[in-house]
């Protein structure tokens, strides 16, 4: 347990000293005495106080006013009220204003210490719970990225290391895996976080406009260029420039981008002056750039220049243990948007979600949950509430996914068991001792598995 600060606010110096003496035996506790209510209020505003003991009858201001200041400054501070005489009205008023307890004078020192110790223990437990909750959240989230699977934890580690450098980054991953979220996470943790983050989709801008959009142009550079325009690269100076779907960039502009990466300089379209740049470039692609290089659609030198730090995002189907976490997050998010409370996913719905191949990855899952909540008004989302395409994708699995993930897994395991022991029994001519040794399974367990799968060793002996 760490140290705690207890402030005693009382206009009577003797009462101050009396309370302080009573609390002196408490370990890891700093006691602050404040005879003046204004000084007490100022300390509450500027310092951390874990427990406030305040007298209701202070000379220059009421204890009730000080209580209001304490609540405004830190809602977590515990407040113990002292009063010269017991009064039901005063007790009710104290509780309404947020006091945790109320003690009337005279009181025994042991009683006061026990009350204060209980308050401090509760504060310690509260802070410990908050710290544990943050640890749990941090273990499954990284900025706006969610995941607790090994592939995602590996991605989080790469983001952390990439953020500590100023190298260019290449992000590879299927559509909907969160490439821009990774780029933003790197930017927000890098020394450039105070400067702009500019994102451009290389496949969304026509080829004839892409050069002007990124590099800018001078007045009269081409028909319609009536004024000088600063490009996105120049406007993002000192920041991070994210180029999504970099493979869609025309070969002519790939050569121009290579020059930017090598020299950190640009020249506007129609201009003669070179402009120095200080920025970081993060590129992303949903296609295999090495294959694009072989096909002549992407420059090999640009690929090597971008591939300084490589982050490969796994598709959702390769991290199915993250699906319940992501689905619950999206349910909470969109339920709040439609002003619905306590919406939950049924186990059957989760099984369907975990079995769907998700070709659109996290973006597809997000949209599926959004569509589900728009149409399903039930407090519990069942499998029947899910979009038809999600159910159809799941039903393409053998024996209908309505049986559930765990039922399907059990069926596959039973089929494997039967095939495995059939091969061993054939190999060893039904010799149970040799099959047991080969499988690494005790004889008693082996007999039970053989009976469960309808296999009789004598059959294999006769066959041999």
Task: For the structure shown, list the relevant keywords.
Helicase, Ruva Protein, domain 3; Rossmann fold; 4 domains; flat; 20 helices; 50% helix; five-stranded parallel sheet
Q: How are the SSEs placed, and which strands pair?
A:
Layout: E1 4-9, H1 13-23, E2 29-34, H2 37-46, E3 51-55, H3 63-73, E4 78-83, H4 88-96, E5 101-104, H5 109-140, E6 141-142, E7 145-146, H6 150-163, E8 169-172, H7 179-188, E9 197-201, H8 207-215, H9 232-235, E10 240-244, H10 251-263, E11 265-267, E12 274-276, E13 280-285, H11 289-294, H12 300-306, E14 309-312, H13 323-337, E15 344-345, H14 347-355, H15 361-375, E16 380-381, H16 388-395, H17 405-427, H18 432-439, H19 443-452, H20 457-463
Structure report:
- The chain is α/β, with parallel strands linked by helices and 464 residues long.
- It folds into four domains: 130 residues, Response regulator (Rossmann fold); 166 residues, P-loop containing nucleotide triphosphate hydrolases (Rossmann fold), CATH 3.40.50.300; 87 residues, Helicase, Ruva Protein, domain 3, CATH 1.10.8.60; 54 residues, Orthogonal Bundle (Arc Repressor Mutant, subunit A).
- Helices cover 50% and strands 14% of the residues.
- The chain has 20 helices and 16 strands.
- A five-stranded parallel sheet has the order 2-1-3-4-5, with helices on both faces. Strands 9-10-13-8-14 form a five-stranded parallel sheet, with helices on one face.
- A hairpin with a 2-residue loop joins strand 6 and strand 7.
- Helix 10 crosses helix 12.
């Amino acid at each position: 347990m760490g140290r705690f600060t207890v402030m005693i606010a009382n206009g009577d110096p003797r009462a101050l000293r009396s309370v302080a003496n009573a609390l002196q035996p408490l370990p890891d506790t700093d006691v602050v005495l404040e005879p003046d209510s204004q000084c007490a209020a100022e300390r509450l505003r500027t310092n951390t106080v874990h427990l406030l003991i305040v007298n209701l009858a202070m000379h220059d201001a009421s204890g009730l006013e000080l209580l209001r200041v304490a609540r405004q400054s830190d809602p977590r501070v515990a407040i113990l009220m002292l009063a010269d005489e017991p009064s039901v009205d005063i007790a009710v008023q104290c509780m309404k204003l947020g006091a945790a307890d109320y003690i009337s004078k005279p009181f025994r020192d042991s009683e006061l210490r026990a009350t204060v110790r209980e308050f401090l223990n509760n504060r310690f437990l509260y802070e410990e719970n908050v710290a544990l909750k943050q640890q749990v959240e941090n273990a499954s989230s990284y900025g706006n990225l969610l995941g607790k699977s090994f592939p995602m934890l590996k991605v989080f580690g790469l983001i952390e290391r990439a953020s500590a450098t100023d190298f260019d980054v290449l992000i590879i991953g299927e559509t909907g895996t969160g490439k821009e979220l990774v780029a933003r996470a790197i930017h927000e943790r890098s020394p450039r976080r105070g400067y702009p983050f500019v994102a451009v989709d290389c496949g969304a801008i026509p080829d004839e406009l892409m050069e002007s959009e990124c590099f800018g142009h001078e007045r009269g550079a081409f028909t319609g260029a009536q004024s000088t325009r600063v490009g996105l690269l120049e406007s993002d100076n000192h920041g991070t420039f994210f180029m999504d779907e970099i493979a869609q960039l025309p070969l002519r502009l790939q050569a121009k981008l290579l020059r930017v990466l090598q020299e950190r300089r640009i020249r506007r379209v129609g201009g003669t002056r070179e402009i120095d740049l200080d920025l970081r470039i993060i590129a992303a692609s949903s296609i295999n750039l090495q294959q694009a290089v072989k096909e002549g659609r992407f420059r090999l030198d640009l690929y090597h220049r971008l591939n300084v730090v490589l982050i490969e995002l796994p598709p959702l189907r390769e991290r199915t243990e993250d699906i319940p976490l992501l689905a619950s997050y999206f349910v909470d998010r969109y339920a709040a948007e439609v002003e619905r409370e306590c919406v939950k996913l049924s186990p059957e719905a989760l099984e369907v979600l975990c079995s769907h191949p998700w070709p659109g990855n996290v973006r597809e899952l997000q949209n599926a949950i959004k569509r589900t909540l728009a149409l399903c008004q039930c407090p519990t989302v069942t499998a029947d509430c899910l979009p038809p395409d999600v159910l159809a994708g799941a039903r393409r699995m053998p024996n209908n996914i309505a049986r559930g993930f765990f039922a399907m897994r059990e069926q596959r395991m039973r089929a494997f068991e039967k095939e495995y022991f059939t091969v061993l029994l054939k190999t060893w001519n039904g010799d149970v001792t040799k099959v047991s040794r080969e499988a690494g399974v005790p004889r008693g367990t082996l007999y039970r598995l053989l009976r469960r799968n309808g296999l009789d060793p004598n059959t294999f002996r006769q066959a041999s």
